[in-house]
Structure to design on (207 residues):
């Protein structure tokens, strides 16, 4: 088997596994099983961090791991040169469209409208390329999140001290079903992701 064929095979397997995980976590019994299995590995690590009282530190580490992993996947799976080229084309298109509207140049407006369909199609293709890495990312992030759900459900008194909000139980809802621990995890992950994206020069479609 050639190297390219092997890479394609592994890629398809990982994509399939990611899809299965995304579907599987919708089933409560599957979430429970993933969480309890991950607990075998994660509980000793949590113990090293000081146990329940420092659970928020584990959430921070999980967020950093997710940010690093997802940023590297975005960097090396998404075609960054194509992304940069598309962004430059989009910027020129938007500038020309704005000028045509301001000057009410009907000829240019018609020409730009014809190009718009092609630009939109290309944007959809670029966004599809960005969507693909998500299935790679969930292989790491979903098991970690399912473990956090599992642990928090068994330790509802675990808490964290927020600025202005004071001490809050991590299992308590912040907004509807969005709990404090999810808020802390996603804010931490977003913060580190933005730093890594800047350092690695990772682009997003339409940005």
């Amino acid at each position: 088997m050639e190297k390219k064929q092997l890479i394609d095979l592994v890629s398809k397997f990982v994509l399939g596994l990611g899809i299965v995980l995304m579907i599987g976590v919708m089933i409560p019994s599957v979430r429970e099983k993933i969480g309890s299995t991950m607990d075998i590995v994660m509980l000793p690590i949590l113990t090293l961090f000081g146990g329940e009282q420092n659970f928020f530190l584990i959430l921070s580490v999980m967020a950093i791991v997710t940010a690093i992993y997802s940023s590297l996947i975005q960097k090396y799976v998404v075609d960054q040169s194509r992304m940069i080229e598309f962004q430059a084309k989009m910027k020129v298109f938007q500038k020309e469209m704005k000028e045509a509207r301001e000057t009410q140049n009907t000829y240019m407006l018609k020409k730009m409208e014809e190009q718009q369909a092609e630009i939109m199609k290309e944007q959809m293709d670029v966004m599809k390329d960005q969507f693909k890495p998500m299935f790679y990312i969930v292989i790491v992030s979903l098991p970690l999140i399912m473990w956090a759900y599992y642990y928090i459900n068994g330790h509802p008194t675990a808490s964290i001290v927020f600025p202005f909000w004071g001490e809050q139980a991590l299992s308590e809802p912040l907004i509807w079903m969005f709990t404090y621990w999810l808020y802390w995890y996603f804010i931490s992950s977003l913060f580190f992701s933005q730093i890594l994206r800047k350092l690695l020069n990772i682009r997003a479609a339409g940005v």
